[in-house]
Amino acid sequence: MALTVPHIEELLLPGAEALGYEIVAVELSGSESSIVRVYIDTEKGVNVDDCAKASRQFSAILDVEDPISNRYTLEVSSPGMDRPLAKPLHFKAVVGQQVKIKMATLVNGRRRFTGELIEANEEFIVVEVDGEQSELPYTEMDRARLVPVYDFNI
């Protein structure tokens, strides 16, 4: 079986749920020394101790299941202010905010979209960039993130 993000997420999900965490997203990068990056969250957020606890749990699962044939580094993190958007539920929660999307294929002559998220349903999102709206299907997305808003008037 080929190593895929859904496969890794499927393996780790029971462990995350047992600890009370949501897996927000899983990313695989690198080739020879792969990086397996897992973003976790809860309604109250997560801290360094939560990430360490989840990392121990996920390491044990990956050691037993052994889905990765080469060396890899496991990173467990909070989603952060520029949180990854991976599921329709994530997009629906941030309608009206700025998002940054990288598509796997060209849509309206471009692959990168940074603009306001106008709509999100189960199949696609609508993003407005420079006054033009584009319908972006989830199946064609390479990467999606929330654009952080910094308030310097503290």
Describe the structure.
The chain has two domains: 73 residues, GMP Synthetase, Chain A, domain 3; 59 residues, SH3 type barrels, CATH 2.30.30.100. 25% of the residues lie in helices and 40% in strands. The protein is an alpha+beta fold and 154 residues long.
Search tags:
3 helices; alpha+beta; 154 residues; SH3 type barrels; 2 domains
Q: Note poorly predicted spans.
A: none
Radius of gyration computed on alpha carbons: 17 Å
**CATH architecture descriptor of the largest domain:** 2-Layer Sandwich
Helix share of residues? 25-40%
Strand order in the largest sheet: 7-6-5-4-8
What's this model, at a glance?
This protein has 154 residues and is α+β, with helices and mostly antiparallel strands. It contains 3 helices and 8 strands; from the N terminus they run αββαβαβββββ.
What's the topology here?
Layout: H1 5-19, E1 22-29, E2 34-41, H2 48-65, E3 72-77, H3 88-93, E4 98-107, E5 110-120, E6 124-129, E7 132-137, E8 141-146
Parallel strand pairs: 2-3
Antiparallel strand pairs: 1-2, 4-5, 4-8, 5-6, 6-7
